[in-house]
Design a protein that fits this description.
alpha/beta; Rossmann fold; seven-stranded parallel beta sheet; 11 helices; 7 strands; 13% strand
Length: 280
């Protein structure tokens, strides 16, 4: 049965706008205390004040998720202010390296990888000892269809190679973390929110490199075929509730039928579905 999220504690990274902010609001509405993490101090303070004004519990914790000491401080302060961490949402992301790799600065390419993959690793590593000690906890990693094509008809996204590679890496990390943590009562999920209008997407579409190398972003933004951030937030709240615990280690999508997936949990695990695999 789903757990009540009231009184639980969640850390949400990349939360100052878009999907992250919608997730924070959704958890706060459920009575979950939320620690809001992003690089911009002004943004996390504004988001925290918005949630507090609506009656929720929130603290702003500006930090760079690629900084190990900063991440450790985030977890320490969250525990000090709210108590042990029950939920981690790894949502911080970067997609700055746009174009052929021979034209992209190596530092920019690596920045995307460290934000998306190293950040997920560091945040997970910081909360897992406490979760394992308490034999409970859930980690949800936000991934992307740009990481792995989702059907035989899908095509690669060659000019977002850092973003795609790192998000594929997060999928593999999700499988590994789930296998390691599940015996200790901790569940780990990957989640693809679909095409949501976010600042990251809009900035990429507007940039000169984006207009040249990934014009499909702007076409998608103009099409109106977008997933509201609130839909992704509701999905993540559901995963955090325990309703889909049998699907730990899987990469799920906002387009999925959650009731059908939960009912097929044993079959999905047995067949290795919804996991990163090479199919011959």
């Amino acid at each position: 049965m789903p757990e009540s999220l009231k009184g639980q504690v969640a850390i949400i990274t990349g939360e100052s706008r878009g999907i992250g902010l919608a997730i924070a609001r959704a958890f706060a509405a459920e009575g979950t205390a939320v620690a809001l993490v992003a690089r911009s101090e002004a943004a996390v303070r504004t988001a925290s004040e918005t949630i507090q004004t609506a009656g929720g519990q929130a603290i702003p914790l500006p930090a760079d998720v690629t900084d190990e000491r900063a991440v450790d401080r985030v977890v320490e302060e969250t525990v000090e202010r709210f108590g042990p961490v029950d939920i981690l949402i790894n949502n911080a992301g970067s997609a700055s390296a746009i174009g052929p790799i021979w034209e992209v600065a190596a530092q920019t390419w690596w920045h995307d990888v460290t934000t998306n993959l190293l950040g997920t690793f560091l945040c997970s590593r910081a909360v897992l000892p406490g979760m394992i000690a308490r034999h409970r906890g859930r980690i949800i990693n936000v991934v992307s269809a740009f990481g792995i094509p989702t059907s035989p008809e899908s095509t690669p996204t060659p000019f977002l190679s850092a973003y795609s590679s790192s998000k594929a890496g997060v999928m593999v990390l999700t499988h590994s973390l789930a296998a390691m943590a599940e015996p200790h009562g901790v569940r780990v999920f990957g989640f693809r929110p679909g095409f949501v209008r976010t600042a990251l997407v809009e900035e990429g579409a507007r940039s000169l490199a984006g207009k040249r190398w990934i014009p499909e972003l702007q076409r998608l933004l103009d099409s109106g075929r977008l997933v509201p951030a609130e839909v992704a937030a509701r999905w993540i709240v559901l995963l955090a509730s325990g309703e889909a615990d049998d699907l730990s280690g899987r990469v799920l999508s906002a387009a999925d039928d959650i009731d059908r997936l939960v009912a097929r949990g044993d079959e999905i695990r047995r067949k290795g579905q919804y996991a990163l695999r090479l199919i011959e």
